[in-house]
Amino acid sequence: MAAARPQGVRDTTRLTERGERGGGADQASMRRTNLGLILRHLRDHGGQSRARVASETGLSKATLSSLIADLVDRGLVTEGELERGGSVGRPGLTLHVDGRHVAGLGLEINVDFLALTAVDLTGRVLVESTRPLDTAALPVAEVVEAAAELLTRATRSLRARGVRPVAVTVAVPGSIDPAAGRVMFAPNVGWRDVPLVRELTARLGRSAPPVVIENDAKLGAVAEHTLVAASGIDDLVYLTGDVGVGAGIIVEGHVLRGASGFAGEVGHIPLDPAGGACACGRRGCWETMVGLGAFLRLAADEGDPVRDPRRPLEERLGELHARAAGGDDRAVAAVDRVGRDLGVGLSVLVDLFDPRLVVLGGWFAYFRDALVPPLQATLAARALTDSVPHVTASDLGLAAASRGGAHLALGSVFRDPGGIDPPKPSSRPA
Amino acid sequence: MAAARPQGVRDTTRLTERGERGGGADQASMRRTNLGLILRHLRDHGGQSRARVASETGLSKATLSSLIADLVDRGLVTEGELERGGSVGRPGLTLHVDGRHVAGLGLEINVDFLALTAVDLTGRVLVESTRPLDTAALPVAEVVEAAAELLTRATRSLRARGVRPVAVTVAVPGSIDPAAGRVMFAPNVGWRDVPLVRELTARLGRSAPPVVIENDAKLGAVAEHTLVAASGIDDLVYLTGDVGVGAGIIVEGHVLRGASGFAGEVGHIPLDPAGGACACGRRGCWETMVGLGAFLRLAADEGDPVRDPRRPLEERLGELHARAAGGDDRAVAAVDRVGRDLGVGLSVLVDLFDPRLVVLGGWFAYFRDALVPPLQATLAARALTDSVPHVTASDLGLAAASRGGAHLALGSVFRDPGGIDPPKPSSRPA
């Protein structure tokens, strides 16, 4: 289970600080820990000789030898000639992370498309593609079949290029039970209690990489975090406009999941007992103010073509965008109102999470220029401290969740390389 | 800085999963990492021979020797005779964590008391004391002086017993800047922008352990987590009733701090635009419904003695508790109403954090029997998933925050034993 929470032995003294290597460890788990240690050491320090790795990690020669042989077997490390870079003396052999031959895959299943991204261990995007699919109108089995096809084609093409896909994260727009591999409820595609991991795995066959599922907004947050982590931003809120409003929250560099994987549900924050009726049966939930339906009702009368559900959403949003840009009073006021109401709800998330950055995704990103100013003003006016986050919009478009899924899949390689099977002789890269 | 976030080298491939040993590491930081590794290994596996530690950790003999000498120098590990426990053969020497000679300290500064707790590395509470002090009425300098006295007396008495205090966490009821060691704003004690760490350190002298500060509700959450972590509960919300309402949130075993240390501010969730006026200038914030003032207004008319601010709060709450227990309509209705409104606000925290447990502290804990049923019913009615947390009340009383502070202080020992100075010859335990 690549994306599941690491199952380290419990920290029996119940400390509450980060930065510890997993609590207790017997010899077998210590070996896996050390496998990851060496791989991360090589990642962070470039190529190094065996002698240098031994001296810097403090591991014994015998242990190191055996661990390196294991990493080479798994196709994660190669031994090659030192780049001399001006130094004197004879060139020696150095160990390198073999990042180009291993990839993580992310697949998003959304209302009207599938998206697939593959990223290799060096962070390079190898594949990024979308395929229109009216998932909401199709039976679950057909959608799963299409997803499996896309994955199979991608894994084949990667393997043909000498790249081994090691794990897949599937993004779903709904609440999921990651441990059980089930989609609990994904209203926009009309799914309820779908054992997606089982269904997909059955279609992918035995040679396929392991599959986990995750909520699409959480994976969008992961993708945005990969873009800013190098700037030291490890606390962010990703907020995506959909039929409702979804969120993925990064806390100290890690996506927030909660005890059962349901964390980050922001749509039903009760902001006004006298507010509009919500699909959940209550009134004044945040999504009755900033969801797509609310926005369309604010922006146009009922007969207006932008409210015609039979027209493609992108077209209707494009039209509204043009109206707002052209100064149409009603469209301008609607965007402004949604921007301010986004600010009210976001102020709750800012008080609770104290993020450094807020990223808008989905249709919010499309209206970024007009939404961000009223949003940021509301946030500043409601701030309890000077710590007001920067607000920006996503540039990842439809690929946000699949990109995040690919990165999450790769995380398992560095965390626990012992969980990555060695390549089959036939698929070993040349 | 015991409680500050570990300063590991950045994870340059921007992964977003837990369980990795800190990113890159040069030889010096690898040495510190390995010090912690051995100490935690001994903690989790009891006494072990050098040979066994070498074989299980994979560290070379030379590295291990040097690391163990360092841990012994720092007074964290001792080498003693093996308890044979029925096994045959001659007894050998084994390494042990020397938990009884090292303590973490927590000190709480609150409105009408100071509290101090010392906990040793084995988790035993060595000191737990409170001292009444009208901090809100005294100048900051006098409170700091009293806190320093309490700390000095405790460290002296611990040292006399052969116990070395290694770090202090000071709990303050307000928003703090942990990095700067400043209290930003603590309205209940009337503090604004107090450089508390500097002031305390100046009074404690050079031989004192390092001091960090943290918000009291965050430390209360840490203390509650130490009590349930062994049951596998690593996601909890601690909610404390005060003049307002404070929260400490544990996410995957770690206290939530946010980018600037301000996370967990729950009092001003805007639940009703038509609600009562809040001290923050807006209307309908959660604390206008569940704060102490709201409760007293709901429970009794203005002239009622329980609303007389000159009487001790504990006495007034005791009287209200007796009235509610005796079936007084007004008191019963007030507790029921606060319980339901606690449920409304808590439903937001449940949606966002998906905790396994909610713990009530402060005066909420005092009314636990009457508050929990309406609270739990509201939470269940508002739940979006089946994942409804258990709700309970704290038994730690006034010691919650200082207990949490002591545990947090100890965290630094296992995380980074290299940051713990060796004992001075005079204070070395016999």
What does this structure look like?
The structure is a homodimer of 430-residue chains. By secondary structure, the first copy, chain A, is an alpha/beta fold. Helices cover 39% and strands 20% of the residues of chain A. The first copy, chain A, has helices at 27-45, 50-57, 61-73, 140-160, 196-204, 216-228, 287-290, 292-299, 313-325, 329-353, 363-366, 368-382, 400-415, and strands at 77-81, 93-97, 102-109, 113-120, 125-132, 164-172, 175-177, 182-186, 191-194, 211-215, 236-241, 245-251, 254-255, 357-362, 390-393. Chain A has a five-stranded mixed sheet. The first copy, chain A, has a five-stranded mixed sheet with strand order 13-12-11-14-15, with helices on both faces. A three-stranded antiparallel sheet of chain A has the order 7-8-9, covered by helices on one side. The interface between A and B is large, with 109 and 108 residues.
Provide a compact summary of the structure:
The structure is a homodimer of 430-residue chains. By secondary structure, chain A is of the alpha/beta class.
Highlighted features:
globular; homodimer; 3 domains; Nucleotidyltransferase, domain 5; 430 residues; disordered N terminus; five-stranded mixed beta sheet; Arc Repressor Mutant, subunit A; alpha/beta
Give the distance, in angstroms, between the N- and C-terminal Cα atoms of chain A.
28 Å
Structural class of chain A: alpha/beta
- Based on the structure, what is the oligomeric state of the protein chains? homodimer
Number of helices of chain A: 13
Number of strands of chain A: 15
User: What is the succession of H and E elements of chain A?
Assistant: HHHEEEEEHEEEEHEHEEEHHHHEHHEH
Mean pLDDT of chain A: 87
Q: Please state roughly what percent of the residues of chain A sit in beta strands, choosing from under 5%, 5-15%, 15-25%, 25-35%, 35-45% or over 45%.
A: 15-25%
Weakly predicted, low-confidence segments of chain A? 1-25
Q: How many domain units of chain A? A: 3
Proper CATH architecture of the largest domain in chain A: 2-Layer Sandwich
CATH superfamily of the largest domain in chain A: ATPase, nucleotide binding domain
Strand arrangement, largest sheet of chain A? 5-4-3-6-10
The helix content of chain A, as a percent range, equals: 25-40%
What's the main sheet of chain A like?
Answer: 5 strands, mixed
* CATH domain class of the largest domain in chain A: Alpha Beta
Q: Return Rg of chain A in Å.
A: 24 Å
Keywords (chains A, B): Kinase, Transferase
GO molecular function (chains A, B): DNA-binding transcription factor activity; kinase activity
Region (Disordered) (chains A, B): 1-27
Domain HTH marR-type (chains A, B): 38-80
